[in-house]
Amino acid sequence: AYKETPFYQLSHVKPYNLDIPITPAAVTYPMTVDHVAAIVKCAADNNLKVQARCGGHSYANYGIGGQDQAIVVDLKNFQQFSMDKSTWQATIGGGTLLGDVTKRLHDNGGRAMAHGTCPQVGIGGHATIGGLGPTSRMWGSALDHVQEVQVVLANSTVVRASERENSDVFWALKGAGASFGIITEFKVRTQAEPGESVLYSYSIQAGNAVAKASAFKKWQALISDPNLSRKFASQFILSELGVIITGTYFGPKAEYDSLNISSRLPAKDESVIILKDWLGVVSHWAEDVALQIGGGISSNFYSKSLAYTKNDLIPESAIDQLFNYVDKTDKGTLVWFVIWDLEGGATEDVASDATAYGHRDSLFYSQSYAVNLVGRVTPNIRDFLNGFNKIIQDSLPGHNLGAYAGYVDPALTEPGMAYWGNNYPRLQRIKASVDPKDIFHNPQSVKP
């Protein structure tokens, strides 16, 4: 009965997506890696599934199992941190949130690593799914920084995994971590913080479908330029408020000016901020309008994502259709947004089969997201997002756009291929070897 109380749900279960109610068998708070191992053994002995939770931002509540009666291993006590200043390799506890990762790296030598913009996301899930962010075009994804981990496996053993030791497990953890173990410690390479950075935005607060479509066409042409600097990060954000094209250039203003970005994007409400303080740059990202809507607050929402390669640019006729659809369709809510996020660059330098992460060739992603502030997600809201994504997919027949595992979509019919592509068969083989009873399980995890 205690597990059904509001106190238990709010204080311990803490579902991120309130539209997917889940009651775990237990929520645990281990203090040591041996505690984690004992919890995994207890769960396995009693035929219960296990999922780790760090930040708890799973869009389908997979951090609490994704279904009832899982054992949740909350890693909030794993906050260890150290920096080897001879190699600039950092050791980071598996329960550390990205906001703390940024601060601790900064305080220990002015270092940084690639990761996303939401400070409440945890490194445990982020760096084992992909971990994309504004600096990924320069430095790769968060998982590309990972050089070694300490991980608890399904047989409750504690091992080290790297390219030299338990390499198959390491390969699988770098893209599909929730299916293979619980990482209690990361060792990551770091980079020197950028110096001066330019934060830019171009806003169209009002305007008809034609103006918005024209803005997207210009943005897509810009980000598909093969010679675009890897120091350039960009997002196209569409919401009820209008259009914002925003991002960061990791270099001095003179370099940014030489790119002539203002001549390649809509000349509407241009804003440019120059910051030399790295913590200030990262804090500015967290103030993004869409992030404020969908960031650290639990809500009833529905989300979908698509991954686009350089061969998947949206045709101009489909762009017109898409923005007409947005203007004319009843969305069922005023709280919705779509983010197209530029990637590519250094993330593409790694071979597609070098890690389990399945979308090395992705030039950009889109994430569509809608919230119901007054109750469960309605069919109207789902139909709006499904229709939006269908226009894009129908405009690219024969293209397999895939989906980003960091934006969990429980409606996917073939999640294995959508999330991990051609890497999925190898993941299944490794799963059968190290977790044949599927202890580390959620509704879309890798199956043996």
TrEMBL record:
Entry superkingdom: Eukaryota
Protein source organism: Lindgomyces ingoldianus
This protein's name: FAD-binding domain-containing protein
